[in-house]
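ok so for the tutorial part 2 we go from a plain amino acid sequence to predicted structure tokens. step 1 is just haveing the sequence, like this:
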Amino acid sequence: MNKVFLSGNLTRDPEVRYTQTGKAFTRMGIAVRRPYSKDKDAVDFFNLIAWEKTAEFCGRYFMKGSRVLVEGRLQTSSYENKDGVKVNAVDIMIDNIEFADSKRVNTDGGNYSEQPSGGYSEQPSDSYSRRQPAPPKKNSFDDFDGGEPVDPDDTPF
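step 2 — the prediction. this is what the tokens look like for a chain of 157 residues:
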């Protein structure tokens, strides 16, 4: 079984691009903390790739610093860099991605009034898979004052 679950912060803004056949995709990075010693943490960085509706969802609602929960699978690839050296890479292909923040903060420091539904996930259908929106969460943030705004550029990852 090839299954990965990660919780962390995005290291860059997702930028949606399109293949020559019109399929949307985006590449992102995620920083994930792990215990290093009794009183220190280390940070691991992973590459994420999303396709189609999930990619468009990520490009629309996520930004650098967004805390996310990711479910996906590992995929290896290899290529030759500009110096002719063979490079092996491991990417995480996103099957499901959700917000892990309690409330999104815009770049001006104010709170967004609307929060999108939980995320997008891949759900099998017959012999192929298609992505559908996850059901909306029934949380209400009306009583939450938003706390102190956090600038994503101030986060260490």
